[in-house]
Amino acid sequence: MDIEKIAQAIETDAGMPLADIRQALTEMQSETGRITTAEQILVRSARTKCGLSQQAFAARIKTPVATLRDWEQGRFVPPGGVLCLLKIIYNHPDLLGELDAA
Protein backbone atom coordinates (compact mmCIF):
# COMPACT_ATOMS: atom_id res chain seq x y z
CA MET A 1 0.00 0.00 0.00
CA ASP A 2 1.45 3.36 -1.03
CA ILE A 3 0.68 5.38 2.10
CA GLU A 4 1.85 8.70 0.66
CA LYS A 5 -0.28 8.34 -2.46
CA ILE A 6 -3.36 7.41 -0.43
CA ALA A 7 -2.73 10.24 2.07
CA GLN A 8 -2.47 12.76 -0.77
CA ALA A 9 -5.70 11.52 -2.33
CA ILE A 10 -7.53 11.77 1.00
CA GLU A 11 -6.17 15.26 1.61
CA THR A 12 -7.20 16.30 -1.90
CA ASP A 13 -10.72 15.02 -1.28
CA ALA A 14 -10.81 16.77 2.10
CA GLY A 15 -9.47 19.98 0.57
CA MET A 16 -6.98 20.45 3.37
CA PRO A 17 -3.91 18.84 4.93
CA LEU A 18 -4.66 16.24 7.59
CA ALA A 19 -1.91 16.13 10.19
CA ASP A 20 -2.31 12.53 11.38
CA ILE A 21 -3.45 10.81 8.19
CA ARG A 22 -0.08 9.20 7.41
CA GLN A 23 0.28 7.84 10.93
CA ALA A 24 -3.27 6.48 10.84
CA LEU A 25 -2.66 4.78 7.49
CA THR A 26 0.58 3.27 8.79
CA GLU A 27 -1.21 1.90 11.84
CA MET A 28 -4.02 0.57 9.67
CA GLN A 29 -1.53 -1.21 7.44
CA SER A 30 0.07 -2.94 10.41
CA GLU A 31 -3.26 -4.18 11.75
CA THR A 32 -4.29 -7.60 10.58
CA GLY A 33 -8.04 -7.72 10.52
CA ARG A 34 -10.24 -10.72 10.32
CA ILE A 35 -12.03 -11.20 7.04
CA THR A 36 -15.28 -13.12 6.95
CA THR A 37 -16.37 -14.52 3.61
CA ALA A 38 -19.86 -15.08 2.28
CA GLU A 39 -19.17 -18.81 2.25
CA GLN A 40 -18.31 -18.79 5.97
CA ILE A 41 -21.51 -16.94 6.74
CA LEU A 42 -23.54 -19.40 4.65
CA VAL A 43 -22.07 -22.47 6.38
CA ARG A 44 -22.64 -21.07 9.86
CA SER A 45 -26.08 -19.63 9.02
CA ALA A 46 -27.36 -22.88 7.51
CA ARG A 47 -26.20 -24.83 10.56
CA THR A 48 -27.57 -22.41 13.15
CA LYS A 49 -30.87 -22.06 11.30
CA CYS A 50 -31.30 -25.80 11.76
CA GLY A 51 -30.44 -25.45 15.44
CA LEU A 52 -27.69 -28.06 15.30
CA SER A 53 -24.23 -28.25 16.80
CA GLN A 54 -21.25 -28.54 14.49
CA GLN A 55 -21.03 -32.25 15.25
CA ALA A 56 -24.70 -32.93 14.56
CA PHE A 57 -24.78 -30.84 11.39
CA ALA A 58 -21.58 -32.42 10.05
CA ALA A 59 -23.02 -35.87 10.66
CA ARG A 60 -26.24 -34.89 8.90
CA ILE A 61 -24.42 -33.70 5.76
CA LYS A 62 -21.97 -36.61 6.01
CA THR A 63 -18.90 -34.41 6.43
CA PRO A 64 -16.14 -34.69 9.03
CA VAL A 65 -16.69 -32.16 11.82
CA ALA A 66 -13.11 -30.89 11.35
CA THR A 67 -13.96 -30.04 7.74
CA LEU A 68 -17.09 -28.18 8.80
CA ARG A 69 -15.03 -26.22 11.34
CA ASP A 70 -12.50 -25.37 8.65
CA TRP A 71 -15.31 -24.04 6.45
CA GLU A 72 -16.85 -22.02 9.28
CA GLN A 73 -13.50 -20.54 10.28
CA GLY A 74 -12.54 -19.70 6.70
CA ARG A 75 -9.53 -21.97 6.42
CA PHE A 76 -11.08 -23.66 3.39
CA VAL A 77 -13.98 -22.88 1.06
CA PRO A 78 -16.60 -25.61 0.61
CA PRO A 79 -16.80 -27.12 -2.89
CA GLY A 80 -19.51 -25.81 -5.22
CA GLY A 81 -21.85 -28.75 -4.68
CA VAL A 82 -21.70 -28.27 -0.91
CA LEU A 83 -22.43 -24.56 -1.28
CA CYS A 84 -25.53 -25.43 -3.32
CA LEU A 85 -26.63 -27.91 -0.65
CA LEU A 86 -26.08 -25.33 2.08
CA LYS A 87 -28.18 -22.76 0.21
CA ILE A 88 -31.00 -25.28 -0.06
CA ILE A 89 -30.69 -26.15 3.65
CA TYR A 90 -30.66 -22.46 4.59
CA ASN A 91 -33.79 -21.73 2.55
CA HIS A 92 -35.57 -24.98 3.52
CA PRO A 93 -34.19 -26.22 6.87
CA ASP A 94 -37.07 -28.67 7.12
CA LEU A 95 -35.52 -30.62 4.24
CA LEU A 96 -32.48 -31.50 6.33
CA GLY A 97 -34.41 -34.47 7.71
CA GLU A 98 -34.52 -35.88 4.19
CA LEU A 99 -30.76 -36.35 4.29
CA ASP A 100 -31.17 -39.02 6.99
CA ALA A 101 -33.29 -41.06 4.63
CA ALA A 102 -30.72 -40.92 1.85
From TrEMBL:
GO terms for molecular function: DNA binding. Residues 43-96 form the HTH cro/C1-type domain. Signal peptide: none annotated. PROSITE patterns: HTH_CROC1. InterPro entries: Cro/C1-type_HTH, Lambda_DNA-bd_dom_sf. SUPFAM superfamilies: lambda repressor-like DNA-binding domains. This is Transcriptional regulator, XRE family. The lineage of its organism: Bacteria, Pseudomonadati, Pseudomonadota, Gammaproteobacteria, Methylococcales.
